[in-house]
Specification:
Rossmann fold; 5-stranded parallel beta sheet; 18 helices; 14 strands
Length: 430
């Protein structure tokens, strides 16, 4: 891995390099995605069946587009029982964590008859997109569905591409069943996003779409935003490790590669105050890259977006971490809790050498659907609030309004909105 001195210039260069990975730079694919979305919106099922045949080499129609109970039962026979039990335990952890995020409606009443409040209700129908093939991750099914279930969303549907035989990845079906998905449809790609956004004869229109996908899926979500809510337009995965001389270089290298194996565009960055650690992590990372199964992907990821930055002070390392605002941030230092208090921008923070990033990906409970490409500066992980609507409640008595009606009329008149002012004024005219 590359070892660079952390300076203002190297930090700026790194940020510019990372930003090139943003989905906002996928413009060359937008025209093709726009055509797919428009076609599905206009022709519905006919279009999605044509795209499934073209892209997935599979004959799907109204009679077999929805996954049956028998197919789910068959999937359980294909998945190792031990893995099923692990999924169930992970689901319990995810559910328990997200239950702590629940908020209640509230009302605030005063003696003069003023009543203000907020009503919290779940969205009606949520849609989850799940990739297929090598990118099929049952863990993401749990992470997308369970917050919606905790929020009491009444109906949750899922779309995922079939293989050439019309089958859906067994692990995906088992995870969906454990999480409590109501309906599963064998549709993938941008056409699946459009189907959920606008509805077809077979696929219902949803209120919100969540879930990861390739460039076409990301751009389809972007194109449909406004017609439907979305979680985010996620970019490639990323990890940043802050470490000092006390860190174990093998642990650090292993954690960096855990994200590099996702994608050739994934980023893996170490910021350390120890030159000895930097050199040893570089050696260990290069060695591990040769031994792991996704060698080619890891090597390209590290060549393009793998960095070891050598900082003069830990404060410099913290400042850089806040600027990068990484999706995953590990702190492997003598006192990780002290440094954690100074981190303002990160999707998820992992503290100490026994809290490596995959713990969060699979099992701990917090959501692994996190902001990427620096958006942790203003976005949060997927959570229960993403499936809730907040409605304001306002009620004034005549006594309460009489105390403030002239203030409201003046404010409205200052904006030239005389009908607004009159709506208040008429209530106090004799």
């Amino acid at each position: 891995m590359k070892i660079l001195k952390l300076t203002s210039e190297s930090k700026t260069d790194l940020l510019n390099t990372l930003l090139k990975r943003s989905p906002n730079n996928y413009g060359q694919f937008e025209s093709a995605v726009s055509d797919i979305v428009s076609n599905v919106r206009e022709r519905g099922d006919e279009a999605i069946f044509e795209y499934t045949k073209r892209f997935d080499k599979c004959e799907i129609d109204a009679s077999n587009v929805r996954v049956t109970k028998e197919e789910i039962e068959e999937a359980y026979q294909k998945v190792d029982e031990k893995l099923v039990n692990v999924m169930k335990r992970a689901a319990d952890n995810i559910r328990i964590f997200h239950e702590k995020q629940l908020h209640n409606s509230w009302i605030d009443m005063k003696d003069d008859g003023t009543m203000l409040g907020q009503k919290i209700t779940p969205i009606g129908l949520s849609g989850v997109y799940v990739p297929g093939g090598k990118a099929a991750y049952p863990s993401s099914v749990l992470m997308n569905v369970l917050p919606a279930k905790v929020a009491s969303v009444k109906r949750i549907i899922m779309t995922t591409p079939p293989d050439a035989d019309g089958k859906v990845y067994a692990g995906t079906l088992v995870a969906a069943d454990i999480a409590g998905v109501d309906e599963i449809y064998k549709i993938g790609g941008a056409q699946a996003i459009a189907a959920m956004a606008f509805g077809t004869e077979c696929v219902p229109k949803v209120d919100k779409i969540t879930g990861p996908g390739n460039i076409y899926v990301a751009l389809a979500k972007k194109a449909c935003f406004g017609y439907v809510s979305i979680d985010s337009i996620a970019g490639p995965s990323e990890i940043l490790v802050i470490a000092d001389e006390t860190a174990n270089p093998l642990y650090v290298a292993s954690d960096l590669l855990s994200q590099a194996e996702h994608d050739e565009m994934a980023s893996a960055i170490l910021i350390t105050t120890s030159e000895a650690l930097a050199k040893e992590v570089s050696v260990q990372a290069d060695r591990l890259a040769e031994e792991l199964s996704r060698t080619e992907i890891i090597k390209k990821s590290l060549d393009n977006y793998g960095y070891i930055l050598l900082a003069d002070t830990m404060e410099d390392a913290i400042d850089a971490a806040n600027e990068i605002a990484s999706e995953h941030l590990e702190i492997l230092t003598a006192n990780p809790y002290e440094i954690m208090t100074k981190i303002n921008n990160a999707g998820a923070i992992f503290l100490g050498e026994y809290s490596s990033e995959p713990l969060g990906d699979y099992f701990a409970g917090p959501n692994h659907i996190l902001p990427t490409n620096g958006t942790a500066k203003f976005f949060s992980p997927l959570n229960v609030d993403d499936f809730m609507k907040k409605t304001s409640i306002i009620s004034y008595s005549k006594e309460a309004l009489s105390k403030v009606h002239e203030d409201i009329e003046l404010f409205a008149q200052s904006e030239g909105l005389t009908a607004h002012a009159n709506s208040i004024k008429v209530r106090f005219e004799q």
